[in-house]
Amino acid sequence: MIDLLTYTFMQRALVMATVTGTLCALIGVYVVLRHMSFIGAGIAHASFGGVAIGLLIGIQPFFTSVVFCSLTAYAIGYVSEHHRIREDTAVGIFFASTMALGVLLIGFIEGYNPDLFGYIFGNVLAVTRFDVIAGVVLLLLVGGILFYYFKEFMFLSFDPAMARVIGLPVRRLNYMMLTLIALTIVISIKAVGIVLVSALIVTPAAAAHQWTQDFRRMMFLAVLFGVGSSWIGLFFSAALNLPSGATIVLTATFVFLISSVFSPQTRKLKRHRRALQQKLQQETG
Questions:
Q1: Exposed site from 32, 118, 221, 275, fewest CB < 10 Å?
Q2: Model-level pTM?
């Protein structure tokens, strides 16, 4: 297994898996705590439109996806804010329409494009030098912004009403968070694909939330689970010749299931249920 690390493609894949696992976990904590999972899925599927535009006009799909996903995220935020419709309704509208746009544009591309399958389902073993450099740059950018606005985003995650009362720029922070989600999704597409990227954002953070209510510990555990799942999924993919996106997401799901069964919250719930049953038996018997 260690011999695989001597290959350049495997070294690039390991760096990309680390970048993707870290970024998705960091953003995922905010997505889970603020109940924005559907927004993440909506922006992820919207990226198909950005990829299609890039392939059609011959520009690197990374750049068109960054612009397209950011604009879609702003549109979701603006429509749900100004047109009195629920956020999930706005996501549903843009989710379907941007996918439809992508399908329409792909129809104009002549011939078979092998890269398209990689964008939809992901292949971290096929990332290029450009993908790795772009991923590291975005990790530093997104991580730097999260670190700089750490207290503001944490406050907004737990009590947005109070954050508005004390004068935090809630609207600007919300749009900033949507942008960070869009950037994270774009850089993760090559690793796990458009279809599965939202799962890598939500699952490690949800697993971490099973173990702790402390914000900093949750963020640490989410990164640990995200990077660990990406590494294990990557090696299973390379060793067994399996789709990398699927193995990474399934590994993260396995971690979530283990956390759900053995977490302190689950044990506490079981003890409470057992004590309640004993009390009922004593009262009836």
A1: 275
A2: 0.84
